[in-house]
Every structure is written in structure tokens, then in C-alpha cells.
Amino acid sequence: MSKKTLYWICNICGWLFFVLLNSLLLNLDNAFSVKVAKSLGILFVFGVLISNLYRNLVVRSGWLKLSTLKIIPRMLIATILFAMLMEVVQFVFESMLGIADPQRYITSSIVYNVLVLSLLFFFWSVIYFLVHYIENYKKAEIENLKWEASINEIELNKLKSQLNPHFMFNAMNSIRALVDENPVKSKEAITQLSNILRNTLQMGKNRVISFDEEMKIVNDYLGLESIRYEERLKTMVAIAEDSKHFYVPPLMIQTLVENGIKHGISKLTAGGIIEITADVKDDKLIVKIRNSGQMDEKKDSDSGFGIKNTVQRLQLLYGKEASLKIENENANVVLTQLIIPKRKDLAE
Question: Which of 32, 72, 221, 235: CA 20 to 30 A from 197?
Fold first, then answer.
């Protein structure tokens, strides 16, 4: 149904209700007659037409674009003028049909009728402006949501384009360190990297991927780093079966694992362990990454470019529903905890 059709239906029904209400009240007082019925018929027809004339004035004069303070005085004056016009038209047509009641057109009755009609036009105005205000508010909200969505999409694409070169740089450095020392292991490292790059290229346009896909990248990454660190790096992975129903931003878990190796294990002469666990609780995926080492909370409060991206991506995709926390669990272990809600709609 078009807005114009809806307007006419509401306008006609409003005046019809007013006329029927008057008929009912007059009938209760035994004052209803054929003359009164004709008078009410004139009221109904010209009420619809004159209120539409009022609407045209509002639209063409641009009142809908004015502030409330500017609309109110215009509306008050207009309601009185159109009420007076209505009274004049009523008198003219009742006189033409020979049904004019002399008692109705004495000064006191005219003033009373104009006041009643003014109130009627006033309520008509309030409803009309309120409907347009709500409609414009909804339009503005939709436009704001579209604008925010566009900005978020731009930011996500920007973050992903920054993240991939960052990861590749670190991976290539790892391979370069192996080329001269151990060509066989360097070939294995290249195979691991090719698997990672192939997966990331395929998912480049996705805002999120399944947790299973993300863990394949993480396992390839850990395999790559295990070749580099040899016995200095030990890994443990325990993933709950329900975690496969969740979606995460591409390379997010890998970035957190990389952060644990770079800022923790790589600084320890004896190396250490990376432990990854994933559980589901209250429809939320809880990923915990523990790495050997100790975080200087003052020095490492800004944990690097990858962590900054991780926080920004979480905020853009999930808002306050997701969280990331990095802290010292004890004197020898740093705990990174990531909480992500179930949001399959992001993958659509």
C-alpha cells in the first residue's frame, strides 16, 4: 500500500469517526434528524477536502523541514483559519440546501463551533506531523546504520589488507633463517607457508571463517614455527567439538598464537610451550592460549600491531559481545583469552 493511499484512508476514516460520534451523541439527546444528517454529511465531505487542502499547504510550504518551535505557531494559526473556513463553507452549503439552523449561526454558536473545529484540526495536525516525524526518524536511523555498516566494511577491509602483509613478513623471515642452515627443513617450511597462503587467499573476501578453517591455518603455522624453533617449541591443542559451529575473523587466532611465540617463547633460552584450548559456554566460544613467558604489563600494554588489529576487528564485528584479555596467569605463563559469540549471520 502506497503512502498516499494510506493517507486518504486515514483521513477519511478520521472524519467518518468524528461524524458518527456526533450522530451517536445527538441520537442520545433525541436531536438527530434528516437536517442534522445532511449537515453532518456536509461536515464529512468538506472536512476531508479542507484537511487535504491544509496538508497541501504544509507540504508545499516546507513545514515538514522546519524545527518544532517554528512549526507550532504556524500550526496554531492554520488550525484557526481552516476552522473558520470550515464554518463558512458549512453555512454556505446548509443555506443552499435550506437546512441552515438560525440558532446555530448566532455569535456564541459560531465561536463555539470554530473552537471545536480548531481543536479537531489541531489534533489532525499533531497526528500528521507525528507520523512524518517518526517516518523521518526511521529513515535517518536506517541511513545511519547503512553509513556505519559501510564504514565498518571499509575498516575491516583495511585491517585485513594490513594483517596479511604483516604475517607474510614474519613467515618469510622464519624461512630465510632456515635456508642456509637446513635446506630440507626450509623446503618443509615453504610447504607449510604455501598451505597458509593458499587458505588466506581463498578466504580473502570473507569477514569471518569457520573455527575449523582457522585452526587449520594455526596448525600449519605451528608446524612452520616448530621447524624453526625445533625442540624449543612444544605445542598442545585441545578443541571442543561444539567449536565448529562458531565463526571467527580470518587469521585472528593465528595472530594471537604468533604474539605468544614472538613475545614469550622466542625470548626464552630454553623455549617453552604453546597450549590452545577451545570450549563453548552459554553460546560463546572461549579460546584460551597459554604461552611460556612473562608479560611486562606496563611495557607490553600496547602489545603490537597484530593485537591492535585483533581488538579493532572484534569491536567492528561483534561490538561488546566479544572480548580479548591478555594477562599473566602465573610467574611463568601468559594467558590470552578470546570470547566470541555465535554469529552465523556474519558468514552469510
Answer: 235
**How far is 138 from 132, CA to CA, in rounded Å?**
10
What pLDDT does residue 281 have? 93
| Residue linked to cell 477536502 | 49
Tell me whether residue 230 is exposed, middle or buried, using C-beta atoms within 10 angstroms of its C-beta: 0 to 12, 13 to 18, 19 or more.
exposed
**Residue 277: HSE in the Cβ half-sphere, 13 Å Cα cutoff:** 10
The pLDDT value recorded for residue 302 is: 46
Burial class of residue 30, CB neighbours in 10 A (0-12, 13-18, 19+): exposed
Q: Each residue of 277-304: b (16+ CB within 10 Å) or e?
A: ebebeeeebbbbbbbbbbbeeeeeeebe
* Residue 32: per-residue pLDDT: 66
Question: In terms of residues, how long is the chain?
Answer: 348
- CA distances from residue 337 to 106, 277, 327 in whole angstroms, order as listed: 83, 10, 9
- For 106, the 3-state DSSP assignment is coil
Looking at residue 250, what is its pLDDT? 82
For 170-203, give one letter per residue: b (16+ CB within 10 A) or e: bbeebbeebeeeeeeebebbbebbebbbebbeeb
- Which pLDDT value is given to residue 10? 86
H/E segment holding residue 161: helix 107-179
Q: Would you tell me how many other CB atoms lie within 10 Å of the CB of residue 326?
A: 21
Residue 142 belongs to what H/E stretch? helix 107-179
Grid cell of 66 as nine digits: 522546519
Positions in the chain short of pLDDT 70 = 26-32, 103-105, 140, 143-167, 170, 200-205, 297-306, 344, 346-348
Q: Please work out, in degrees rounded to the nearest 5, the angle formed at the alpha carbon of residue 218 by the alpha carbons of 157 and 158.
A: 10
Domain boundaries, the chain: 3-143, 182-347
Indicate the pTM of the whole model.
0.53
Q: How many CB atoms lie within 10 A of CB 223?
A: 17
Q: Tell me the CATH number for domain 182-347.
A: 3.30.565.10
- Alpha-carbon distance of 329 to 335, in angstroms, equals 6
